[in-house]
Amino acid sequence: MNHDELNLWSKRAADWAQEYHAGLRARPVRAPLRPGAVAAELPAAAPEHPEAMAAIWADFERIVPAHMTHWQHPRFFAYFPANASPASMLAEQLSNAIAAQGMLWQTSPAATEIEQVMIRWLAQALGLPGGFAGTIHDSATTATLSAVLTMRETALGWDGLDQGLSGQPRLRLYASAETHSSVDKAARLSGIGQGNLVKVPTDSGLSMDPEALAAAIRADRAAGWRPAGVVLCAGGTSVGAFDRIADCIAVARGEGLPVHVDAAWAGSAMICPEFRALWAGVEAADSIVFNPHKWLGAQFDCAVQFLRDPAPQIRTLGLRPAYLETAGREEIVDFNEWTVPLGRRFRALKLWFHLRAYGLTGLRAMIRDHVAWAADACERLRAFQEIEIVTEPSLSLFTFCMKTEAETAALLQAINDEGRIYLTPTRHAGRLVIRVQVGSLACTAADVGEIATTVARHLQRA
Fold this sequence. Notes:
The chain is an alpha/beta fold and 462 residues long.
């Protein structure tokens, strides 16, 4: 394929994308779960000779759409959304065409400087005070790992980078059981270890208990261990729990510990001032992550980490060998030093397009609709005698179940096999429950109304 052919097929792809999105409501949300079905359609080895693009395209249309779970479907109420606005799709096409490697300022000045401006735009939009810097990672997992690695090295006086962890003091991290598994992964990959991630008890509101946090830190110091940092939750993945951010940061500050706040999903809602009480005190955190590629609507991958002071993270993650130096430009920002990978995509372009195309007013309206529609869906389900609302709506997320675990599991399977809507399970207080999370960019009030309608249909069949 050459660039002339690319032009032709890109137009074909744009037409296909328009038809795909226009027809999503007619498709089942989740793919049929038949392991090996797709692999069986593919040759056992790569072709020796070039194949015609028409044949490749035909195979794409025949194999791929029918075997995808459609994340852009307006009735996708599972996990958290991975939205992709048309404006951000367009920006991704341009980023793909430019195909820059943005590891250094000099390799992509526009990529670096637009990223800096987008960080400022987003910090202002979320109500964060001036002074926060930041960067764009691929996912919140990488951002949290970067924060935890920085906690590790700060606690060790940066000796771990040179000497390794052997012989170093035993480090301890603190988080609640409502935090995402990416925190556990960060504890493992940083060398701190799963066994040194202390899951602090929560109160009746599922928030980390500040007194329990203080007690855990004191106990570890008494044992001769070294506390390294605290990870707080602002909108947990399971049921949308929020830690008492201000109170827990006050404890951490008193103990001289840095704080990272995981707001990967719920951070987007903070563009609406009325929701900011949920993370009150966040301005005192050292690090905050949220994913514009979830509820805000930007194309995956796009996770923003705000940093009160980037210097410790740069000292932890940065390397500048001679072949990565920019002569005479010591003061510039090279974002590869702020994160784990050296290579970087031009992720800021889609944020620039997306924020300009929809505006904060439009995005606020979308999020407010989702919260209101989720509350309505919850009330409609509550009216069913067979249904118990287990956790009340946290923004646009709530959970429900039936009287027995077997009934709950059967209902969920029947709903997802039918394909009208897509829901996923979690466990809360030892019980199997069904999550409902409203956040699809394309959904309407009628789409969200399908949740109660679908549940009612399957209850009648049971």
